[in-house]
Amino acid sequence: MGQERKEGFDGLVRLVRGRISLTRNKRLRAALSEGGDPFQRLSEELLAAVVIEWTKDRPDGSPPASAEDLSPRELGSLTNRVARRLERQADEGTRWLAPSGGSPGISTRTKYPR
């Protein structure tokens, strides 16, 4: 993602981050803590999750110019989708960690269709 595009989402990321509480959302905290500090992982992965969820239904993909351009309902819906995405990503990541001695993120098992 280009630096200019990333900067365009900074305000939206701040709005979403202000609504996510790892203290209240125990499921998200548990999922993110599997790979280390949940607060650090949230800060690392939040931008990508916000961009993906925001652009999913918007062909132009441009973020709102200001917080006033976003209704509380839209922000709530976006925040919920971002939190669920982060939970799913964290769960999928821990399922594919290699056994000890392997490289993280690479499965040493081959899956064959049954």
UniProtKB/TrEMBL annotation:
Organism name: Rubrobacter marinus
Record's protein name: Uncharacterized protein
Biased composition regions of type Polar residues, renumbered to the chain: 105-114
Region (Disordered): 56-114
Taxonomic superkingdom: Bacteria
Residue ranges, compositional bias (Basic and acidic residues): 84-94
